[in-house]
């Protein structure tokens, strides 16, 4: 199966995503293209890194993941291809692959320099169309990753600053990693650190218990649950925790716990 996923901040009101798909299918008509999401907040590399990092492993081995959130398109930032044991990742070297670098076994990193695999006319504003889409298509057509350019040192890749989890005398101080479509707040506190009896505070809201499903929560009360991404999640039953709390990415959340 020749699977390519697309993750961008392009939205759906412009033809950019459709054009990328057209480029891929022109080169590899057999490609199966899956939209991971195109609703990354504009230029939000941190969010793209999180979304990709919690999603990529649910695809078949050999999948090529194209991720284009690229506010520095056309600058000196490098277009890259990362080959891991099971997957390929294609996009800009701007920190977007931080979670991949931290979690995957990296076989090699290629700077995309071989213009033979690009579109003939290269723009300075749409490398998703002109570089990343055609490279992905040629890759799933069977081209050797090394043919796309020159080797890069893994240690020299751009990495995002990590949102740290702080442990202090039984307290964990975490942060909001992601706010999903429902207004749920996904933190950077791993599920395995949390037991049923918890006491937490997010801004002026107290969290006093952990539920096993959304329906167990009380109405109009900010509640905690172990989320599907592997991290503690704060939610509001039949509502938006983000709107209730005016939450933003990187807001702190402090929690005490006992077994």
CATH fourth-tier homologous superfamily of the largest domain:
S-adenosyl-l-methionine hydroxide adenosyltransferase, N-terminal
Helix content: 10-25%
Question: How many strands appear in the DSSP assignment?
Answer: 16
- Major sheet: 9 strands, mixed
Number of domains: 2
* Overall residue-averaged pLDDT value: 92
Number of helices: 5
At the first level of CATH, the class of the largest domain is: Alpha Beta
User: What letter string, H or E per element, gives the SSE order?
Assistant: EHEHEEEHEHEEEEEEEEEHE
Class from secondary-structure proportions: alpha+beta
Tell me the β content. Answer: 25-35%
Question: What is the CATH topology classification name of the largest domain?
Answer: Rossmann fold
Gross morphology is: elongated
Q: Uncertain segments of ≥5 residues (pLDDT<50)?
A: none
- State the separation between the terminal residues, measured CA to CA: 46 Å
CATH architecture of the largest domain: 3-Layer(aba) Sandwich
């Amino acid at each position: 199966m020749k699977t390519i996923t697309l993750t961008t901040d392009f939205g759906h009101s412009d033809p950019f995503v459709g054009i990328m798909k057209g480029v891929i299918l022109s080169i590899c008509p057999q490609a199966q293209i899956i939209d991971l999401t195109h609703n990354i907040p504009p230029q939000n590399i941190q969010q793209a890194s999180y979304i990709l990092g919690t999603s990529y492993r649910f695809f078949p081995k050999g999948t090529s993941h194209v991720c284009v959130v690229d506010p520095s398109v056309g600058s000196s930032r490098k277009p890259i291809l990362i080959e891991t044991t099971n997957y390929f990742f294609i996009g800009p070297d701007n920190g977007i692959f931080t979670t991949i670098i931290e979690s995957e076994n990296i076989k090699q990193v290629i700077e995309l320099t071989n213009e033979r695999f690009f579109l003939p006319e290269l723009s300075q504003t749409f490398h998703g169309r002109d570089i990343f889409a055609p490279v992905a298509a040629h890759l799933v057509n069977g081209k050797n990753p090394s043919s796309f350019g020159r080797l890069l040192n893994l240690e020299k890749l751009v990495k995002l600053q990590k949102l740290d989890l702080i442990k202090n005398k039984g307290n964990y101080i975490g942060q909001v990693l992601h706010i999903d479509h429902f207004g749920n707040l996904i933190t950077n506190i791993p599920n395995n650190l949390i037991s049923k009896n918890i006491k937490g505070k997010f801004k002026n809201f107290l969290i006093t218990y952990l539920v096993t499903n959304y329906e167990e929560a009380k109405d109009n009360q900010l509640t905690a649950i172990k989320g599907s991404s592997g991290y503690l999640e704060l939610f509001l039953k039949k509502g938006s925790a983000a709107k209730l709390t005016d939450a933003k990415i990187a807001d702190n959340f402090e929690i005490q716990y006992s077994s």
